[in-house]
Specification:
Layout (H helix, E strand, L loop, with lengths): L1 H20 L3 E5 L4 E5 L14 H10 L6 E5 L5 E7 L7 E8 L5 H11 L7 H9 L6 H15 L20 H31 L2 H16 L9 H22 L4 H17 L3 H22 L6 H12 L7 H8 L3 H12 L3 H17 L6 H7 L5 H12 L3 H8 L1
Helix pairs in contact: 3-4, 4-9, 6-7, 6-8, 6-10, 7-10, 8-9, 8-10, 9-10, 11-12
């Protein structure tokens, strides 16, 4: 009974921390079993923590005094703050907050993680979306969280009792209400016209038109900031969620694969909820429209025939692996000759040319770093031969990989 009460008390602490920080919180017992978790992030399988990671955290904490907290960083750069609960006679375990990251250079972090852990290049976009959704904490912020954990878990839990001021009933001015309704009608019509134009621009991947339309649409949405009385942030966040859904639908119309749509939609849902000022929310909504537009420009396949669309989706999701015409044809259940002919008609390239073009595009991102070996880059993007990689790269860019890397330094 005492253990159950103790666990319930620590669960209440977890819920309180999650509600305030919007960060993932996990409670584990002394054997590393999860007793409670409140999470926003679905960690991609390729970087998910191993089963024994919680045991490792417990082993570290059990050897330290109760006023210590542990800053854990796993091989994928995911960071956690944890505190041990070893002084409670009725329960032993750890309370963990995270994941978060401490670097704002997410793209550089992703490149290092993929190389260090030999992750497939096809996972890059998914990993970028995931890491960009994580909280970025300074050293002071992460240390403050550690100190908070020590203080919250170092005492018996106290059930707080709330009291508040009496509710003052508003006086309704029906004449003013009628005027407001008419004004709202005009605003709503204007908003729908703008949103439809913006959705069309995103579906087309028209960045210039998106830039032209987004400011006026955001201003219209800010006008709705009083729709949750006394809480303009909540109202604006709700509008942000609406925008996220609309942009996702617009990108879906262009033929973007659901994997990419899910990742970007989940990331912005988390970022919207975590934003706490109107200027920051406005900036986020602008970034969201541009990123959905760029996603369409990069991954849209809606202008292809159904067969070629399936082939392109397969290529983009498996770029780091060996891919051949027959492999693709087998996966999408079509005749190789028919696929080859349709692919050439739709894209103007044969499948090998298309694959090489995409792989070289990925290689450019890593060559810009200047500190990664050519062999590592070649293998990461799907070339099994360094000489062939150099030959293809020069054919498509007119320079060798080494020359390109030096030019970008």
């Amino acid at each position: 009974m005492e253990e159950k009460v103790a666990v319930n008390n620590y669960i209440k602490i977890c819920q309180m921390i999650h509600s305030i920080t919007k960060m993932d919180v996990t409670l584990i017992d002394s054997d590393g079993n999860t007793l409670f978790e409140s999470i926003n992030h679905s960690i991609p399988v390729v970087v998910d923590h191993p089963d024994n990671e919680y045991n490792h955290i417990n082993e570290i904490l059990i050897n330290h005094q109760s006023n210590h907290y542990y800053h854990h960083i796993n091989p994928y750069g995911l960071e956690y703050m944890a505190v041990g609960i070893w002084r409670d006679q009725s329960f032993n375990g750890s309370l963990i907050i995270g994941p978060f990251i401490s670097s704002i250079l997410v793209i550089d972090l992703i490149k290092e993680i993929m190389i260090k852990n030999s992750l497939p290049i096809g996972e890059r976009k998914q990993l970028e979306q995931f890491y960009q959704s994580l909280p970025v904490l300074s050293e002071i912020e992460s240390n403050s969280i550690g100190e908070m954990l020590v203080n919250l878990c170092g005492h018996q839990y106290i059930n707080a009792q709330a009291f508040s001021s009496s509710i003052i009933k508003p006086v309704i001015n029906y004449d003013q209400l009628k005027i407001t309704i008419e004004e709202d009608k005009d605003i709503i019509e204007d908003r729908y016209q703008h949103q439809n134009k913006l959705m069309d621009a995103i579906t087309k991947g028209d960045r210039d038109e998106v830039n032209h339309l987004i400011d006026s649409l955001i201003d219209v949405f800010v006008g709705f900031s009083d729709r949750v009385p006394g809480n303009p942030i909540r109202s604006s966040k709700n509008m942000g969620f609406v925008c996220n859904t609309l942009y996702r639908v617009a990108a879906e119309r262009s033929g973007v694969h659901p994997v990419y749509l899910h990742n970007i939609s989940e990331r912005f849902a988390i970022l919207i909820e975590r934003t706490n000022t109107l200027p920051s929310l406005k900036k986020l909504m602008f970034s969201m429209a541009i990123e959905y537009c760029d996603l369409v420009r990069t991954f849209s396949t809606g202008h292809y025939s159904p067969i070629v669309k399936k082939a392109v989706d397969y290529i983009l999701l498996n770029l780091g692996y060996p891919i051949t015409l027959h492999t693709i044809a087998k996966q999408i259940h079509v005749n190789p000759s028919h696929l080859s002919r349709k692919f050439k008609e739709d894209t103007g390239m044969n499948i090998t040319e298309y694959i090489n073009q995409k792989r070289v595009g990925e290689a450019k991102l890593y060559l810009q770093r200047g500190n990664i070996s050519m062999t590592d880059i070649a293998f990461m993007v799907g070339f099994n031969d360094l000489n062939y990689f150099s030959k293809v790269f020069k054919k498509l860019t007119s320079v060798t990989p080494s020359q390109y890397a030096k030019r970008k330094l």
